[in-house]
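Build the 3D complex.
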Amino acid sequence: MTRPWTEAVPADTRQLSIGELSARMEAGSLSAVELMQELVARTKAVEGRVRAFNSFDEADALAQARASDERRAGARRLGRGAVRPLEGIPVGIKDVISVAGQPLTASSRMLENFVSPYDATVTERLKDAGAVCWGRLNLDEFAMGSSTENSAFGATSNPWDLERVPGGSSGGSAAAVAAGEAVAALGSDTGGSIRQPAALCSVVGLKPTYGRVSRYGLIAFASSLDQIGPFARSVRDAAVLLGAIAGHDPRDSTSVRLEVPDYARGVDELAKSGRKWRLGIPKEYFGEGLDPEVGAAVEEAIGEYRRMGCEVREVSLPHTKYAIATYYIIATAECSSNLARFDGVRYGHRSREATDALDIYFKSRAEGFGQEVKRRIILGTYVLSSGYYDAYYLRAQKVRTLIRGDFLQAYREVDAIVTPTSPTPAFRKGEKAADPLAMYLNDIYTIGVNLAGLPGMSVPCGFTKAGLPVGLQIIGQPFKETELLAIGAAYEERTQWHGRVPPL
Ligand code: GLN
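Done.
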């Protein structure tokens, strides 16, 4: 939990994938401790500029790395082959996912001094897979936002242009991976919070199907939309991470009882099969509001798929025009309910000014929550209040069904849908902070995927003339993450965008 930003030697492992790092560790040319030391040095060198972390615990990370090296040495002595793919790999964790004994702040004053008493299921699974849980990554307070400017502890910068936002709400996760401060990271995605920052920082970001990954130990924002997923340097790395965190969990009743496929192997098999994908391009996603350079990069990526022999056809998602309105009714309604637990009594911030019981609630919440969180709690309480429930909440639920129906209709003729991830590249800090609606419009291409419960992924697909990253969103069919990853990997294999690192 130190923040000693000093210049140090840059790491030389920044462009290596999980597979390559693992091979080096297996060959004995790199230890988990050395890798972790490099990341610590790199983090100390760049973090003063990037500020991706709310905190990190260097001693704890190095101890985890040491334990990993010991496990590897032990397995070798016993003559056991085939080391687990995540053994010794440092994975950054968004500061809204519990790691036992570490701070859990949601980037909110409300939880400024809270320490998590237990591990989230995803954390437990990463540790079981041998990974090193590394640091607490910044976000928009309670994951509400698209720029990481809503953090109570200061904004994160985009490693490609420090004057600009990294996207949000998982901006710290995306920036840490882009800046080489973590090999991979976990984030959460309620309306685009993994995919949009991944696009703006030129890394891979995957939101799995609703129900694929347990949310036990994730601070809930909007429970019918929230899903945890990985950020990574490549699609194959994302496949390895998904394999580690996915699966049924009795502690999250929405997690499904479906077997977890070997995603990494599935991707390789599909690549070998030479399968020609049928891709749908939704005409509603290429209209007004789309930055021309983003549009051009995405068109070029679609061209690449055509050259691979994929069948590309136009599809229609007519209810897209209601997606933002629907999302901001459902998400705020659910957040007003979920955030009721932060009452100044059970845990979190308690006002020192309060004079009676009721006053504890009022003042603790007034002091603990930031502006955007309050705006959403008020909006959500309004749409759920008697007399308005039918007009807003119930209606939004009906429109949500129509939006899902659009996607399922399209999937009768295509395997996946391809769109821009975000309508614009990274915007300047402060540019949209004062205009919530402008900020909300940034989610236009991502929120439909959450409303429909589908898996979606952003992969790097180019840069604007000013050097800002552009992301390609690929939207898959429910629980067909292997296919989704394979479609992303096919593009990645033929392009070099994902290999680029920012000049920090
Ligand atoms: N940007 C969206 C919002 O502000 C999505 C956030 C998220 O996915 N957590 O709600």
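The chain is about 40% helix and 10% strand.
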